[in-house]
From TrEMBL:
Residues 140-287 are annotated as: Disordered. Residues 24-123 form the SH2 domain. GO terms for molecular function: guanyl-nucleotide exchange factor activity; phosphotyrosine residue binding. InterPro entries: Ras_GEF_dom_sf, RASGEF_cat_dom, RASGEF_cat_dom_sf, SH2, SH2-Ras-GEF_adapter, SH2_dom_sf, SH2_SHEP1/BCAR3/NSP1. This is Breast cancer anti-estrogen resistance protein 3. GO terms for biological process: small GTPase-mediated signal transduction. Coiled coil: none annotated. The keyword Cytoplasm does not apply. Residues 401-664 form the Ras-GEF domain. It comes from the Eukaryota. Residues 195-218 have a biased composition (Polar residues).
Length: 675
């Protein structure tokens, strides 16, 4: 067991881009063995495809049943001597399989829109892959030793039960491009009709439906909801007698063949064009399905919709519009006037006259109004960093624990970011429903600048709290200990990644990191807190800055917006990164996800703030307002100066305070020897 454990540890130390380095990868594990490992919804693992070597299968458990999805390995060869490997799943392509898993696990995104399956609990292997391979080999040899009728019974028992008796003979393939989970990577066999047997690979075929050899052919059968080679329905029913003869047999397309067309063929329609009445129509309620604003090929009169609904409608429409880029001869042959009748454009003149486009208002003035700010803590015409105010703040913070303080910060952040308490008038001015959508749009520039300003001021406030402690080193380490606990509360209790990143930014300022004696005292007096900061919070922050949402488990109230804000305001967040374009892509993808799920963030933030587990304190709420920080740091008159000037001067003040606490030890210069 020790040798197996060491061998497994060596596998897990490999490159993170290699599936072998992840415990959720089980190598050549068979389908039946994978299903036996599942216990509850969300369980998943990745294994090798038995039917298509070189590809992978994502196996999961959802709604009391196992599901299997093919991950296609695609090799691009744009020119001789150069190739690139990608892994395609649904409509997305990834550089490697671990990136695919991080994408779906981190964002809790459904891996299939049809089933709604979500994966979040990996089934890890406890032995090295060599042992799994040996077990599968032994299992294969035991099956081959079964003779005669026993072997036939064994094969029948292990055969996939994917069709009911009514569907067994009615389903025929109308798409000559056999897809497995995503776009095919080999167009060598276009024009051939794949055989039914070759389509039954490691796909999303549910087991447990008893096969029946009795055939019923009473007419066209309805579309089977279980015959799938990926996560979307790809097959349409046709009577057996209408099937045209094809001379060639079907060959399963595999991503490892590496022969690609200049453009990947489009994904077939989710709703059958040839048989519009064979499945129930999609919901027409615009609140349920935003794509209902568009019919098949004929656009209806648009109604006033939000930015998120527009994004969702674009995604569904673009997936359908791709069909116009490729000509399918077999579709032309199947065309008939009755099935392809298009609905007439509704002529509702009254509705058209009632609807009108209203241009969003472009804000040019900050939402922080210093002239209207009335303070309970600051005197009139206060000076910068007034000692009496700093002392009152320290006593105020000492009366509240980390969780209560984090909830006060969440309350103010949600108001500034326009996540909660957004009025209808604000929505009309913005043109969207929340600030999470506005920051991704061109006319959201002022809100982006305000959020960057607030984020920096929170970091400066944390730095002042540490550097303003002129007591002993042990007292300073206690302040550092409380701030680290505040960061943890913002992350785990308030689910506020915006303020969490601001606190972590402060702890990483050069004026703070140079306090070696303070950090040493923290490790000595508060060891658990120091370990929490170094081993959990810092790696978590680094992953967020890299645009990796897989580290975020569960819902969030305020997402990590700073990389997007910096990128859209011209401050390149990837300038010093080796990942470059990939990092920028991850940041933009994360921002798009935040905009799409803006309502989820709003609902979760509203639930936290109205839960009744905390009581708002007016003085503490004011202490976290941005107007209060502007006047506290730069005084009544200095707060109106330019941002660059204010930041430059305050950075010098922090450096002076840091040097006073732990002066730089100068090594005396040795006199030069006389010659």
């Amino acid at each position: 067991m020790d040798s197996l454990k060491k061998e497994l540890e060596e596998e897990l130390k490999l490159s993170t881009d290699d599936p072998t380095s992840h415990a959720w990868y089980h190598g050549p594990l068979r389908r039946e063995a994978a299903e036996s490992l599942f216990e509850r919804d969300g369980d998943f693992l990745v294994r090798d495809s038995n039917s298509a070597p070189g590809n992978y299968v994502l196996s999961c458990f959802w709604k009391n049943g196992p599901m299997h999805f093919k991950i296609i390995r695609v090799i691009l060869r744009p020119k001789k001597g150069y190739s690139r490997e990608l892994f395609q799943f649904e409509e997305d392509r990834f550089d490697n399989v671990p990136a695919l898993i991080r994408f779906y696990v981190g964002g809790r995104r459904p891996i299939s829109q049809a089933s709604g399956a979500v994966i979040f609990n990996p089934i890890t292997r406890s032995v090295p892959l060599r042992v799994i391979i040996e077990r599968q080999t032994d299992s294969s040899s035991s099956i081959s030793s079964i003779k005669g009728s026993d072997r036939e019974k064994y094969n029948q028992a292990s055969k996939r039960r994917s069709f009911s008796s009514a569907h067994n003979d009615a389903l025929q393939i109308i798409n000559p491009l056999l897809r497995s989970g995503s776009q095919p990577s080999n167009l060598e066999n276009v024009g051939r009709r794949p055989s039914l047997q070759s389509a039954q690979s490691d796909s999303n075929l549910r087991t447990g439906v008893q096969q029946n050899t009795k055939q019923e052919n009473t007419g066209p059968a309805p579309i089977s909801p279980v015959f799938r080679t990926g996560s979307e329905p790809l097959l349409s029913p046709r009577p057996r007698h209408s099937r045209p003869a094809f001379p060639g047999g079907g060959v399963t397309l595999r991503g490892s063949d590496g022969q690609l067309h200049t453009r990947a063929p489009p994904k077939p329609l989710r709703v059958s064009v040839l048989f519009p009445n064979s499945i129930p129509p999609p919901p027409r309620d615009r609140n349920v399905d935003p794509s209902s604003y568009y019919d098949e090929l004929v656009v209806q009169v648009p109604q006033k919709i939000g930015h998120v609904d527009r994004l969702r409608a674009e995604e569904k429409w673009q997936s359908r519009a791709r069909l116009t880029e490729t000509s399918f001869g077999f579709l032309e042959a199947e065309k008939n006037e009755e099935s392809l009748q298009l609905p007439a454009l509704p002529q509702k003149k009254a509705e058209v006259e009632d609807w009108h486009f209203e241009k969003p208002h472009v804000e040019t003035v900050s939402c922080f109004h210093l002239d209207q700010f009335e303070s309970l803590l600051l005197p009139e015409n206060n000076r910068p960093l007034e000692p009496g105010v700093l002392l009152a703040l320290k006593e105020l913070f000492n009366r509240s624990n980390a969780d209560i303080t984090a909830m006060h910060m969440l309350s103010v952040d949600c108001q500034v970011a326009r996540i909660v308490g957004v009025t209808d008038e604000q929505k009309r001015i913005m043109g969207v429903g929340s600030g999470l959508e506005l920051v991704t749009l061109p006319h959201g520039r002022q809100l982006r600048q305000d959020l960057l300003e607030r984020h920096h001021l929170i970091a400066l406030g944390v730095a002042v709290d540490i550097l303003g402690c002129t007591g002993t080193v042990s007292q300073r380490s206690t302040v550092l200990h409380k701030l680290i606990l505040l960061a943890q509360a913002l992350k785990d209790h308030a689910h506020n990644l915006y303020s969490f990143s601001a606190v972590m930014k402060a702890l990483d300022l050069p004026q703070i990191t140079r306090l070696e004696m303070t950090w040493r005292a923290l490790r000595r007096n508060h060891t658990e807190t120091a370990v929490l900061f170094e081993k959990k919070l810092k790696p978590f922050m680094n992953m967020l800055n890299d645009g990796d949402d897989s580290v975020v488990h569960g819902p969030s109230a305020v997402p990590h917006l700073v990389p997007l804000l910096m990128a859209m305001e011209g401050d390149d967040p990837v300038e010093n990164s080796e990942r470059g374009c990939q990092l920028l892509y991850d940041v933009l993808q994360s921002a798009r996800s935040a905009a799409l799920h803006a309502q989820d963030y709003q609902q979760h933030a509203h639930t936290l703030l109205t839960a009744g587990s905390w009581e708002p304190v007016p003085e503490l709420l004011e202490a976290f307002r941005t107007e209060f920080a502007l006047r506290l740091f730069w005084g009544q008159t200095g707060a109106t100066a330019s941002r660059e000037e204010r930041y430059e001067k305050f950075d010098m003040i922090l450096s002076v305070l840091s040097d006073k606490l732990e002066p730089v030890e100068l090594t005396p210069r040795q006199p030069e020897p006389l010659t």
